[in-house]
């Protein structure tokens, strides 16, 4: 941290700041300029008190961090891309992950039909919500444990790996027993106790960006998971809330490039939640691949018009098969430029 002293501050007041820095456990290194002085505070913020409180001193103009607050997720600590191993399926570091399936698990017939179709098209991971966070209490909340049972059945029958959302600390063991990836949704993106509980499962975790979450907050949320011993984490851009009403959310593809630059973790894009419109999903998938995303999380349904949740943003089985074909030249170009 750098503590900037106000211009023309008397030496005795500078010494007060130096003493406070040392009292908080840091090594204080003052640098005296012609008009202004700065105090470099040497120490690890993870084991010392944050020095932002020094801003309360009248002679302190500003306290500035030198290093990023997210240590473990940053490329400074881990320059190479992390590859997440999903029970034998590798995603990241040049290995692209295609995750697809219905927004909600509704029935055995619906899930099995979708699972076989997305696998035939090239998906390796089946998505499907067993527990659903809905804005209205009157909307379909998912099948719960029956949904988990159906996902396990789909995995056994197709060999696809499973990703499903974890909503509560009380469900960690149940969800981890059946899922290969625990998804933390946008509404829980900063539910830190849930993140800690998910980390303890040892399963790979897909962390979605919150509805109004800044990129640094997103990365700091991922830091919670890594700080609790689980390095198998995906960052997922799923659109943010803006003033725009043409789409449900605004898919922030710039965040993909920034996350890839700042962090070593694989970045997944959810275009379905990202725009809330099935007619835009295929175009957004191409853009995501071109931006360097490590994978896609796409909502697919045998008959979206009859879906119990978010039918307007789910694409058909045929449309997904065409999407998988459309992506091939984009994937080839992305790999060639990597």
Spatial order of the strands forming the largest sheet: 7-8-9-10-11-12-13-14
Strand % is 15-25%
Number of H- or I-type helical stretches: 10
Order of helices and strands: EHEEEEEEHEHEHEHEHEHEHHEH
Q: Quickly give the structural class.
A: alpha/beta
Specify the overall morphology: elongated
Radius of gyration: 23 Å
Q: Main sheet, how many strands, which sense, barrel?
A: 8 strands, parallel, barrel
Helix content: 25-40%
The oligomeric status of these chains comes to single chain
Mean pLDDT across the residues is 93
- Number of beta-strand segments: 14
Give the termini separation.
35 Å
**Would you identify the regions where 5 or more consecutive residues have pLDDT less than 50?**
none
Any overview of this molecule?
It is a single chain. The protein is α/β, with parallel strands linked by helices and 338 residues long. Helix content is 35%, strand content 18%. It is built from ten helices and 14 strands. The protein has an eight-stranded parallel beta barrel with strand order 7-8-9-10-11-12-13-14, surrounded by seven helices. A four-stranded antiparallel β-sheet has the order 2-3-1-4, with helices on one face. A hairpin with a 2-residue loop joins strand 5 and strand 6 (89-91). Helix 5 (192-200) packs across helix 6 (215-227). The longest helix has 21 residues, at 317-337. The two termini are 35 Å apart. The mean pLDDT is 93.
